[in-house]
TrEMBL record:
Residues 103-257 form the Phosphoribulokinase/uridine kinase domain. It catalyses: (R)-pantothenate + ATP = (R)-4'-phosphopantothenate + ADP + H(+). ATP binds at G108, S109, V110, A111, V112, G113, K114, S115. This is Pantothenate kinase. The gene is coaA. PANTHER family: URIDINE KINASE (PTHR10285). It holds the Pfam family PRK. Pathway: Cofactor biosynthesis; coenzyme A biosynthesis; CoA from (R)-pantothenate: step 1/5. It comes from Gilliamella intestini. GO terms for biological process: coenzyme A biosynthetic process. Keywords: ATP-binding, Coenzyme A biosynthesis, Cytoplasm, Kinase, Nucleotide-binding, Transferase. Belongs to the prokaryotic pantothenate kinase family. Its EC number is 2.7.1.33.
Amino acid sequence: MYNLSQINLLDRIREQYKMKNHLSPYLKFNRQEWASLRNTVPMTLTADELVSLQGINEDLSMDEVSEIYLPLSRLLNYYISNNFNRQAVLSKFLGKSQKTPYIIGIAGSVAVGKSTTARVLQALLTRWPEHRKVALVTTDGFLYPNRWLEDRGIMNKKGFPQSYDIKKLINFVADVKSGQDKVKVPVYSHLVYDIVEGEEIVIDCPDILILEGLNVLQGTINYTQANNRVFVSDYVDFSIYVDADLPLLHNWYVNRFLKFRAGAFSDPNSYFNHYSQLPEQEAVNIANRLWREINELNLIENILPTRERASLILTKGKDHKVDLIQLRK
């Protein structure tokens, strides 16, 4: 159940959405209308590759890729080509080469399928005839280590704005955007639920960077403790918000939790190994509580209010299928 403050905030969000919907800055497409915009873009992924790209709680179909993601990759390719053409003009004017990576941000709730969207787009954009180099980074790597969160008593706020080293994240995006080579990213392990000390991945001058995370579209209102006035969204060229109704998200979260309980949680090294030993109903009760007290609260307070900042909103219905696409005019 929602508390009073959550209900009031949800009501405000709905009212704002209705007002914006009346004079919307978005073009709206149903699934069939959007699918027609694929034009003649060929399918470049195999059925086996789709299996490797989908999340644990999703069944990614060829229809979903051909009807939703291929038109989106076509649109993105136009935007990216136009961006690089402008860079070529600037390089010619300045008399020296200018290379600025194109950054795509993907935001949305826990369990909505952001990671699947990011992986599919990376695979598709890599296979366009231009053969561009596409890197994928999640903002999980910029969470503070568990020890830091525990010292401040905010382990139950993991994923909330205060749990991120926002300065380090912004420095990373700024370095990539400026064309710096071999930019390092901390590694986050979902198995141990923590930053892996001493491990890093290196992002070396990609043509395109896909940045995926809860906080990609957040700004000053979310990071009131930050001294800077520059945020991740300031560096993003095109942003996608993956959306779904709260009851669906709740159900997907619980189902995903149970699948993890039967799989990854059973690993003795898993931070959540103790959940795998519980009776199923007790595990369901815990998943419901974690959703209500942490993930839903973070969604309502910090993530959902950023939805209308996105360049594109993908709204999912049952079975994780996108049934509404809104593209900023």
